[in-house]
Amino acid sequence: METKMLNIFINETPLQVPEGTSILDAAKMMNVHIPTLCHHEDLCVAGNCRICVVEVEKDPNLVAACATPVREGMKIITNTAKIRTARKHILELLLTEHNINCIKCSYSNSCELQSLALEYRTDEDLFINLRKQIAPDISSYSIQKDDSKCIRCTRCVRTCAELQGVNALTMSGKGNKAKMSTFHEKPMAEVVCTNCGQCINRCPTGALTERSYIEEVWNAIYDPHKFVIVQTAPAVRVALGERFGLKSGHRVTGKMVASLRAMGFDAVLDTDWSADLTIMEEGTELLHRLKKVLVDGNTSTALPMFTSCSPGWIKFIEHIYPDMLPHLSTCKSPQQMFGVIAKTYYAEKRGIDPKDIVSVSVMPCTAKKFEANRSEMRDSGYQDVDYVLTTRELAIMIQQSGINVLTLKNEEFDSIMGSSSGAAVIFGATGGVMEAAIRTAYELVTGREIPFENLRITPVRGFSGIKEASLLVENVLPEYSFLEGVELKVAIAHGLANARKLMDAIKNGTVQYHFVEVMACPGGCLGGGGQPVPTNLAIRTKRMEAIYKEDEKKEYRKSHENPEVQAIYSEFLGSPNSELAHKLLHTYYTERNRY
Q1: Is 309 designated active site?
Q2: Residue 406 pLDDT class (50, 70, 90 cuts)
Q3: Which of 185, 252, 277, 346 lies deepest, with the highest CB count within 10 Å?
């Protein structure tokens, strides 16, 4: 059906737009800027902040540009004295309740309210000061909630409901008593929150931020008795540059490594190495499960098997689908595999007492902070990962160091746990774990190498909420004869609202798979809650393109080809899923109450 086009005027300039276009989107087509606070491209329209008001000919009242669709012949004005005065007064009213200690706020210079206040010169106290001293909620390992900075835009509430389907946050009260709240006003650590941090990525003011561990990491670096190791996740290197003025999707792997070394870390290593290790363990576990079902006829074996790399997804299933926990892979995430190996194998190889090792990870994810503090993650005899920093926190630490990232020469990761394959890099994108697993599983099962040109497994790529693919297994090695002729069915979901849809379909028996990848965040880790803001589909697309470019430049493209992964099996673990591998690299998960 052909889209109906409408003729409108913006600031007396004619424009033709599709029917259903909002005034705000129409203005963007002409590069006319209309300020917003409650609006976000990823979310439904709220229209409650009114900062985007404009004039429409013959309409006696100002209208919200984000919530008003255009109509034929509409004449819109975006910049008059009346509009500027209204916007300025709205900002001044918001500031009467807002904690304006911007100097100490971690959102300073990236706060949308601060930017608009400076733009509209809101330097007059026209209204009564209604600011209250409210202590931030720091109960969660991952997320800090500060009601004194909330402007009730509801972005966080809509994010948690629409994108994630969790509803940990809501609005309570009315009028001047309205506020962002939780179930029965419980602390963030006590509600059904997956710690994904998507609310943080869309908060315009810093009312929601990550729980910061910057000072703890600096103290460790400055302690001469500590050997401080840092690992960096694949999605960090394609987003960090945004905090230093580079365009989205600019890869800064070498400069990131150089920055970390200059900051004083004793060893700069790579989470991608343990992502390769994860593929070896997870792929072997899947083959064992398939054999139990197809050969032994063991119907109690849980299929499909779900990936366990995303801690937000893990906490989601623990709360919402505890009866499905047996379907989770028992593998730890790459972060936690790295942590336990750092304080066992690595410590032994380097001759360091593990009690003197401080293990730091830089992640695109706020849920990793919670994961590192889980009681199950201490198989090294110590806390396996001591501190987790987000991409944003790393950028702050680089700035504090006085390092000019853009002028640094590229450097390489240190050895032993610093080498990785392209398959590990793509863990940062939705579908990446599945693609990495298929690359390795195909060669291990058939004994045949995948041609270079076929390494792009396109059905599992992209931003569709739920993706499906199947692979007919043929001409296998004798030890895998039970897979001959099997059509291996897989599915991928990203964003917890999509995960819920997929889980319901699996529980209802309407779909059947052997292997399922779920990432808690939109786009996967590249859209994680610890990544630079702002975020939208265009930015996430650029990051995804960068991840696949990083993969394609790698010497090794498959996890089982990584020499450093081969070394740890020959020198330490023995084989994938060995007794020692199970002790160190595998875990269990627990049912959590809803409330």
Answers
A1: yes
A2: very high
A3: 277
* Given 329, 359, 419, 559, the catalytic residue: 329
pTM of the model: 0.95
Instruction: Evaluate whether 389 touches 213 at the Cβ level (below 8 Å).
Output: yes
Mean pLDDT of the chain: 95
The contacts found for 476-485 with CB under 8 angstroms, 24 or more apart, are: 476/445, 476/446, 477/445, 477/446, 477/447, 480/287, 480/445, 482/290, 482/291, 482/294, 482/295, 483/290, 483/294, 483/445
Active site residue: 368, 542, 554, 558, which one? 368
The active-site residue, picked from 210, 281, 285, 435, is 285
Asked about 172 being catalytic, the answer comes back as no
The C-alpha atoms of residue 209 and residue 212 are separated, in whole angstroms, by 8
At 446, phi and psi to the nearest 5?
A: -100, -20
Give which of 229, 281, 234, 270 is closest to 584, Cα–Cα: 281
Q: How many CB atoms lie within 10 A of CB 413?
A: 23
d(CA 374, CA 465) in angstroms, rounded, equals 29
Please name each of the domains of the chain with its CATH number: 5-79 (3.10.20.740), 93-210 (3.30.70.20), 227-273+335-407 (3.40.50.1780), 282-329+422-585 (3.40.950.10)
Burial of 378 (0-12, 13-18, 19+ CB in 10 A): middle
DSSP symbol at 52: T
Taking alpha carbons only, the member of 405, 343, 348, 365 closest to residue 232 is: 365
Q: Are 569 and 449 in contact (CB under 8 A)?
A: no
Judge whether residue 288 has pLDDT over 90: yes
- Is 554 catalytic? The answer is no
| Residue 329 known to be catalytic | yes
Residue 423 tokens read as 């398959």
Measured distance CA(590)–CA(319) in Å, rounded = 9
- Out of 112, 318, 371, 435, the active site residue is 371
> Strand pairing partners for 13?
10
Q: Looking at 105, 153, 331, 525, which residue is catalytic? A: 525
Residue 282 is a catalytic residue: yes
Instruction: Give the pLDDT of residue 455.
Output: 67
- Give the residue among 472, 470, 471, 502 at the shortest CA–CA distance from 485: 472
* Residue 75 burial by Cβ neighbours in a 10 Å radius (0-12, 13-18, 19+): middle
376 given a catalytic annotation: yes
